Amino acid sequence: MSLNPFNATRAIAENQIRRLIEEGKLDNLPGAGKPIPGIDEAYDENWWLKAYLKREGITGRELLEMKKS
Hints:
The protein is mainly α. 55% of the residues lie in helices and 0% in strands. The protein is built from three helices and no strands. The N and C termini lie far apart (62 Å).
């Protein structure tokens, strides 16, 4: 019986996750028990860009200034 590479990879990942849970290494992760930010918002294809700009503290004005130079 040959394994599909996808199924083999999935089995490896699931085993590693199970081991980490048993060892308690996934306890007390940041954000545990909190809602996922933006989960109820409509899909936005530029979500990653907006998150990047927010995380880096870049404003629209700064983007316009970068474009001018």
